[in-house]
Amino acid sequence: MKGVDVFREITPLTQADCFLLFDRNKKRFDFPVHRHKEMELNLILNAAGAKRVIGDHSAEVSDSELVLTGPGLKHGWLNHHCKSDQIREITIQFHEDILGEAMLNRDHLNAIKIMFQASVKGIVFLSETINEVSSQIVALSGKSGFDSVVGFLKILHQLSLSPYKCLCDAEFVEKDIVEEVLIEKALSFINEHYQQQLTFTETAKAVNLPDDLFSRMLKRSTGLTFNDCLARIRLGHVSRLLIENNYPVGEIAYRCGFNNLTNFHRIFKLKKLCTPKQFREKYSGNRLAVY
User: Fold this and answer.
1) Which of 55, 93, 103, 217 has the lowest tally of Cβ within 10 angstroms?
2) What is the residue range of 109's domain?
3) What residues does the HTH araC/xylS-type domain cover (predicted)?
4) Confidence of residue 136 (pLDDT cuts 50, 70, 90)
């Protein structure tokens, strides 16, 4: 879809996690169209009139919405004609290899394997399926540990056996694949070293690019400068710690690479449109890992 800026998100999902779940009540869609290397299942309720953007597809949605997106596929929801101020969004992010290649090749999981393969084009589920599984997804928000993993796998299994529709045209392919790989590598490097006082030159060197070329590629691919990318990644980890822990805000800021608290509060309020305390009170989420 042309005319929509795409933000490249690096999620707070780690290799130790099975998946991450975020349960949000919101008045409007304020997160840009974006993409990330993880798969994502999105349940959206009370959002009639909003616009769904998945790859080269866009459409106005009804009151409820359930979409599965594959790795690297751009996606997002825009307010468009949505009048509701009681939107509920439950987002589940998980690794593409959550079940592993050996497991997916078992006969009993063949339907999930086929669904995962189709997700590269984006999948929307029918209203009948949403009615059947939405309560399970909502209930998953209150689970943790092994029970949460079992619950999530049951949801994936049920979805794989349900009818669904692929959203992107079969010929749709993202452009500039080589550049995408290099920028993904750069952003992964930043994500690995965000707690340090990382420099632009160090990052360019990590992907074997001259400073000026790296700067142009980064701006062209993400629309952001290096400092903006670093700040966004740090804020992603700050957001996760605010949701999951009761650490003091100052300690969280320091853990995530912000050494100047005044600057941290300014950046946080500018990007999140609220204070860290307000963010903590507004959002709930669980770090759901295999134990």
Assistant:
1) 103
2) 7-166
3) 184-282
4) very high
In a shared domain, residues 198 and 70: no
DSSP result, the chain:
-TT---EE---S--TTEEEEEEEEEESS--SPSEE-SSEEEEEEES-TT-EEEETTEEEE--SEEEEEE-TT--EEEE-TT---S-EEEEEEEE-TTSSHHHHHTSGGGHHHHHHHHHGGG-EEE-HHHHHHHHHHHHHHTT--HHHHHHHHHHHHHHHHTS-EEE-S-TT---S-HHHHHHHHHHHHHHHHSTTS---HHHHHHHTT--HHHHHHHHHHHHS--HHHHHHHHHHHHHHHHHHH----HHHHHHHTT---HHHHHHHHHHHHSS-HHHHHHH-EEEEEE--
pLDDT by residue (tens digit) across 38-54? Answer: 899 999 999 999 999 99
Query: What's the token pair of residue 108?
Result: 């009993």
Q: Residue 259 phi/psi, 5° resolution?
A: -95, -15
Domain count, the chain: 2
Report phi then psi at 173, rounded to 5: -140, 130
Does residue 270 lie in a domain region? Answer: yes
Q: Are residue 155 and residue 32 in the same domain, yes or no?
A: yes
* Phi, psi (degrees; rounded to nearest 5) at 168: -90, 150
CATH number where 140 lies: 2.60.120.280
* Nearest-5° Cα angle at 233, 96 to 281: 95
Task: Kindly report, residue by residue over 168-205, the tens digit of the pLDDT.
Answer: 876 554 544 466 778 888 988 998 999 999 999 999 99
pTM of the model: 0.65
Asked, for residue 1, whether it belongs to a domain, the answer is no
Q: Is 46 left (phi over 0), alpha (psi -120 to 50) or beta?
A: left
Name the token pair of 205: 């060197």
Cβ-based neighbour number of residue 116 at 10 Å: 22
Query: Is position 125 within any domain?
Result: yes
